[in-house]
Amino acid sequence: MDVLSIEEEDRALAVVLDEDPDVVAVLSLQLHVLGMESRCYRRADVLLEEIDECEPQLVIMGLEFGDPDGIALLRLLAERRYAGWVLLLGGVERKISRIAERVGHTLGLQMLGSLDKPMRMTELRQRLDRLHLGRKPAIAPEDDPFFSAAELDRALERHELTLHYQPQFELATGRLSGVEALVRWSHPEIGLIGPASFLPMLTAGQSRRLTCHVLEQALADAEQWAGMGVVLSLSVNVTADDLMESQLLSLTRHRRPGEPPLVVLEITETAAMDDELLGSEIAARLHLNGMEVSVDDFGVGFSSLSRLQMLPISELKIDRSFVRHLQQDSQDAAIVEAVALLGRRLGIRVVAEGVEELDCLPTLARFGCTHVQGFGLSRPVPADMIPELASDQSPIRARIAASGASAGNTP
User: Fold this and answer.
1) What's the rounded Cα separation, in Å, for the pair 292 and 311?
2) Mean pLDDT, residues 214-219 taken together
3) In the chain, how many H helices and how many E strands?
4) Which has more confidence, 96 or 302?
5) Structural domains in the chain, sorted by start
6) 179: which strand partners?
7) Residue 335: what are its φ and ψ, rounded to 5°?
8) In 188-288, where do the E strands start and end?
9) How far apart (Å, rounded) are the C-alpha atoms in residues 215 and 291?
10) Using an 8 Å Cβ cutoff, are 297 and 316 in contact?
11) Total Cβ atoms within 10 A of residue 43
């Protein structure tokens, strides 16, 4: 029998794929207790058909099962533009699970890490609680299925795309030092929608329009903050193609180098390394126009260090997949320490992103990371909340100090 199903009306749907019938049975019962409908499979082709038809909110999958294997299945999910969450099951070497998780992240899937076997109810509950999955049939609106290119055009024309800002903190002092602009869609019917539901659908032209819109709005917000005495660095995510857009440079050309706010354009490591000469040229032009370049998701692109040295970059951002398990995984710790040392030797900032548990802060400080960001310190907030956050930074400093990391009293 290919499918075991425990269903109840008005529950979110999870589909499970694993060859072990005991695992399938236990997970079905656990999901039922936690308020989810579950459909469990032992064949990948049947599971893919179910995903196409029912659009489940959660896929729980092992990695060892015939053809296709687990990593190949992640690629098939990405090709189908699966917009829900993916939780991997253990049972393979931990290094293999971590590679699979990083592959999923790179493909644009929403990965929840891996769940060790035997599965513990408490750990599964913690994962689902974070997503607010349970007896209601849908994930939060920001994780709804993808939207069409035409809808995105209308959203751009109607100025429905808004910004939230992820705060970034100086680790040594706890000072709010900058923000990263994150786009949200304020949909007139659905409400606030996260980027995972619409960014993958952007055409190249729409991507350039959106980047210019984000930069223009972020600069306007930063001007307002500066008028209130709040001067922060401003980070904006861009693609390699976006950087060739002349309008992007013209938006900041009136700013002299060093004049606040400092604009940092974040480009992924893979894109930055694709064309060494082009990357160096673009980064040099940005510096001449008063902007800086950050290499985002550093550590997942297998960079040549000699090529990295050629790029006039100002910041390395360590990918969250290394930070998340820093305290439990010695290999992740070694990678983070090596990147921090590299940044220190190159004289550039090193930002650890995705900080969720503050117990990693002393380790990050000891390794030499200069800045941190993540939900454990602050979730993304609207523009009007940034001055309030900047005016009273004592709670953040106290939490950093309580973790065992240093947080001074610099104003």
Assistant:
1) 11
2) 90
3) 17, 16
4) 96
5) 3-139 (3.40.50.2300), 148-403 (3.20.20.450)
6) 167, 234
7) -65, -45
8) 191-193, 233-237, 263-268
9) 12
10) no
11) 14
Amino acid found at 103: V
* CA torsion angle 116 119 125 127 (round to 10): 20
Q: What does the alpha-carbon distance between residue 56 and residue 222 come to, in Å, rounded to a whole number?
A: 40
Tell me how far apart the alpha carbons of residues 117 and 163 are, in angstroms, rounded to a whole number: 40
**Token digits for 206?**
């729409």
- Give the mean model confidence (pLDDT) for residues 9-32: 78
The DSSP line for 73-132 is HHHHHHHTT--SEEEEE--S-HHHHHHHHHHHHHTT-EEEEEEPSSPPHHHHHHHHHHHT
Q: Which is nearest to 183 in space by CA: 153, 159, 147, 154?
A: 159
What does the block give as tokens for 48?
């893919």
Q: Please state, in angstroms and rounded to a whole number, the distance separating the CA atoms of residues 59 and 88.
A: 8
Contact at 8 Å (CB) between 319 and 299? yes
d(CA 194, CA 392): 28
CA Rg value for the chain: 22
- The position carrying tokens 């939780």 is 87
294 contact partners, CB below 8 Å, separation of at least 6? 235, 264, 265, 266, 267, 313, 314, 315, 316, 317, 351
Cα(345)–Cα(190) distance, integer angstroms: 48
pLDDT in tens, 306-336: 556 666 778 888 888 888 888 888 888 998 9
